[in-house]
Amino acid sequence: MNKSVATSPAPDHFRKRLREQYDRLWTAGIRKIRSGQIEIDPILAAAEPDRRRGLTVVARPGPAVRHRVAAFLSRLRGLEPDQYFYAPAEFHVTVLSLFTATVKHAPFFARARQYTSAVDAVVSRFAQFQIDFKGITVSPGAIMIQGFVQTGLLNDLRDALRHELHFRGFVAGLDRRYRLETAHMTVARFRAPLRDSQRFAAMLERLRQTQFGAVNVRKLSLVKNDWYMTHQTVEMVKQYLLKTETA
């Protein structure tokens, strides 16, 4: 490839595959929400400190996208104030969890320098990419902003990171929850029963196609984080500037 990723057109098959994944989530999730059969996060429900920690490569949206997402969440909060809504400083797209957040994090962080070296070896080869944030999807436990990538570069980056980590022996904890392929942002989680599940589901349906804008991802951050990427807890490890063109 020899064109700038930020300006290349979005192939239909990438968007179609992402759309199908988001639609499957939506179909199953909105049914659960409408009937009140949500999955309540036990730590959020108990208002306990989250003692899990992980090491994650993330991309952050720009100010315009953050503003639109915050306005969207304000509308949801008006109906269901008991739920957990992310702060704008916490909005992110997970590129890859180097190890999934866990309470048994000490052995992983003892090798933090080696993890950082692995990311160093990969990220410098990759170019900027664009994410279009269009519409929402849901699961029984969360509300997400749909992200659509311009090309397959994001997943190529993820695969390269996975390969490097496996090569260096960092297998434990990698992609423990699922093999991440989407570019979504989780922006709300359930921590209490819904006050009016049908009314809330109806609002989500009305806002399903909300446009949040696009971001040209020019840099990535390697951060130490809890499960919710709480801004008071997140610690910056290193930032990486992406290339303007592919090699």
Description:
The protein has helices at 12-34, 42-46, 63-79, 106-109, 112-123, 153-167, 197-206, and strands at residues 53-59, 84-85, 93-102, 129-138, 142-149, 185-189, 211-217, 219-225, 235-241. Mean pLDDT is 91; it is low at 1-10. The chain starts with 11 loop residues before the first helix and ends in a 6-residue tail after the last strand. The protein is built from 7 helices and 9 strands; from the N terminus they run ααβαββααββαβαβββ. It has 247 residues and is α+β, with helices and mostly antiparallel strands. It has one domain (12-241): Cyclic Phosphodiesterase, Chain: A (Alpha-Beta Complex), CATH 3.90.1140. Helices cover 35% and strands 26% of the residues. The strands form 2 sheets. A 5-stranded antiparallel sheet has the order 2-6-5-4-7. Strands 3-1-8-9 form a 4-stranded antiparallel sheet, with helices on one face. A hairpin with a 3-residue loop joins strand 4 (129-138) and strand 5.
Care to give the gist of this entry?
The chain has helices at 12-34, 42-46, 63-79, 106-109, 112-123, 153-167, 197-206; strands at 53-59, 84-85, 93-102, 129-138, 142-149, 185-189, 211-217, 219-225, 235-241. Strand 4 (129-138) and strand 5 (142-149) form a beta hairpin. It is globular, with a radius of gyration of 18 Å.
Identify the strand order in the major beta sheet: 2-6-5-4-7
Distance between the first and last residues' Cα: 7 Å
Radius of gyration: 18 Å
Please give the CATH class.
Alpha Beta
